[in-house]
Fold this protein.
Amino acid sequence: MSRRVQLALNVANIDEAVTFYARLFGTEPAKRRPGYANFAIAEPPLKLVLLENPGQGGTLNHLGIEVPDTGTVDAEQARLAGSDLATVDERGTTCCYARQDKFWVQGAPDGESWEIYTVLADSQSFYSEDHDDPSCCGGADAGRPAGHDRTTESPACCATDAGPAHAAPDGSGRITKRSQTGREQNF
């Protein structure tokens, strides 16, 4: 597999969105779970992820670049460090029904969330079962598929209202999120 851009969208109704995007791209989803679907589109090379989030339909959840292996994740992280871009590392995390090695890029000018990742294995779970792990799609006001209990999920990636997770600048290792109103949440 070569590199492929990922676009993760919030959708109001997963069934309607899957029907539309299957017709638009002429292919069925590569993975389909409750409140979640992803398309591995060959041309143009795109990983389209749909996350059912009623009331958030039509909004961007996050962006990513899927790479072939962990070595490429490491190389990209080193390259970005050389360009003075901060990253938040997540190795062996479970997110979007997949076990992944990845990192989140910090400092996008408009606050958009970018991840660079590789899929290690499929998962039957949407998020990490280790709820102390700052992994995918949780947090207080998260934008994850409908039906996932926010009290049992861990903070980080796919949050829409709370924004992306960030490592605290004081080096404490604490994970924080800044809401759209500017309020910072600690996890």
